[in-house]
Amino acid sequence: MPRHIVCLTFDHDHLSGFIARGMTSPTAISRGEYDVVVIPRLVALMERYGIKGTFFTPGHTIDSTPQAVLPYVEAGHELAHHGWTHRLPVTLSREEEEEEIVRGNESIRRISGRSARGYRSPAWDLSPHSIELLLKHGIRYDSSMMGHDYDCYFARQGDVAELMKPFARGRETPLLEMPISWSLDDFPHFEYMRLPNGSVQQGLMNAGNVLDNFVDDFTYMTRVQPDFGILTYTFHPHVIGRGHRMMMLERLIQRLIEGGAVFMTMEQAMGEWLARNQGARKAAE
């Protein structure tokens, strides 16, 4: 029987993304705080359709505003790791990156009672140390890379990328990669940003046009992988939470249900993928 899994994921950055960019004015802070309004609406929307999602939440969000995190933790959604600050791992030393992982897990355990199984890098930019550190600290899957669209794979460690030499691939690790895409992320489509360096991210695209793109990606999965596939969408509460976008999100859910989608958390989808690929799992280990 065909099995086409959809994961609705939310990067609950709250204030951390703005602070990491040096944007700490009252207006910037208020943009992050808008998610306090949105989170209960998102939880209610998914409850109406019987959907469990995955929230990638920085420790900074958890420790700064636990009341914004508790609604989805108490509703049984997956709480996954998104660093403690919202700094890119590739900009940190190995020691700083490990501190982010440890501190973020401590925040997750305090509010949920369990450690994170999954991780997503802030801005999706891993460092040369990330995979080693994630495995060291018990992370089972990552969702930061883009090497596939509808399938998972095992992350490699030790790639060598030099300008004047052929690319040398490292060895596969037991860390399962559950890939994402900027094209399936609400932030570049919708979020208008004037950045500290003077550049502008335009955003503000028509939600109906983005909806068509999002639905077509699912439809294409059912064609090119007719038996089994996993598709991951990424949303940010303070972005998707505006009225016309919330209506787009509900229409997306409705159309995916009509297309036969099975909604799962990332951890659940990981379990199903591993069960179907036991041989690959043993080889990676």
TrEMBL record:
Pfam families tied to this protein: Polysacc_deac_1 (PF01522)
CDD domains for the chain: CE4_HpPgdA_like
Residues covered by the NodB homology domain: 25-264
SUPFAM superfamilies attached to this UniProt entry: Glycoside hydrolase/deacetylase (SSF88713)
InterPro entries linked to this entry: Glyco_hydro/deAcase_b/a-brl, NODB_dom, PgdA-like
Domain of life: Bacteria
Xref: Gene3D superfamilies: Glycoside hydrolase/deacetylase
Family, as annotated: Belongs to the polysaccharide deacetylase family.
Its biological purpose: Is involved in generating a small heat-stable compound (Nod), an acylated oligomer of N-acetylglucosamine, that stimulates mitosis in various plant protoplasts.
Name under which the protein is recorded: Chitooligosaccharide deacetylase
